[in-house]
Fold each of these.
Amino acid sequence: MAAFIFFDECIFNSLNGAIDYDTHTFKAALSNTAPTVATFDELADITEIANANGYTTGGVTLTSVTLAETGGGTGIWQWSCADFSWTASGGSIGTFQYVVIYSDTSTTDKLIGYYDYGGAVNITTGNTFTVDIGASGIFQAQEP
């Protein structure tokens, strides 16, 4: 599984209410251009791959999104969702390396973080690329 990397502005946007992990709609978009963690703040900063062959600009909507404590009194909170995927149809989905997670509810689509797959990924016709969220969710945070 690729590591999840936070954008620097994510904490600020979370604390000021621009990102609400309980109520917002979240999406995942694909990019082949390395995001700049220190300055990127919204989806418009991301260079998405072309809208074609099973990829729609803006990406896929995350489902079964949850924010829950991992166990009573642990102080460890986990943000998670169901696995999500793209299937190539009518041709390959453009090469990508980054899966970017963002809040689609905010008017400026605030960025949370991204998975870096470490190299080019290409989904050929008829094949599916699935992001396996795993038991630890997208991320966990511990209360101070």
Note: The CA atoms of residues 75 and 143 lie 5 Å apart.
Amino acid sequence: MKQWEESITIAAPADKIFPAVSDFARHSEWAGHGLQATKVGDGPIAVGTQFATTAKLLGTQREQSTITDLTPPTKVAWDSVGALGKVHHWVTLAEQGGSTVVKKGAEMVEPKFLAKMTMFKISKDIPKGLQADLANIKSNAEKSAG
């Protein structure tokens, strides 16, 4: 299905960036659309951990997100299911000479009717959102590293 990915270089090591991008409770520090995430259940965060999320995008979006990959400090991925359907998300980190290339992406895996009807708008908005999220991740990481 439809996939998007953006990247940015951050002047900080991956192990300093990874905690902010892998902890859903901290996504509101950098994610757009007023994202709020609440962990479902007890125990440590691992593959299979679920979060109830709420964001403001085409109205209020309530989703269930499940971590599908947690490989410190190089990758975190999750699937979100909500009104638009199932969307796979990921953040990857690759160190390069003292900096880290961070990539953030999304793939519409199982679009529902709403997503299909608004795909033109979604296809314009998602890359902008990915870029804004990456800029916020960079700003936060470079502030804490500096």
Note: The mean pLDDT is 91.
Amino acid sequence: MFFRAGSSVLLCFLNEKTKEQGTLPPHYGEGKLHFAFEVDPEAYVACKQELIGLGIAVEHEEGWEGGFKSFYFRDPDCHLAEVVEKGMWEV
């Protein structure tokens, strides 16, 4: 399964199934993983409120150099997901 996120793509795999593939190299991940999504600074608060409205707990919010912010939450498999303001990694 994949999700288009702007000009990027988030690929999601069933861990054990990718170990069985014969053509492509296995591309599973093990353990607790961390991934992040960028949002426009104007959409940051709305994105956080939407997740909270869905009953998803924000685990932590961080202020970064340059005035950027990000927040963290867990996906259903307890991986750490982060939402960052666009432009943070360009600084």
Note: The chain has a mean pLDDT of 85.
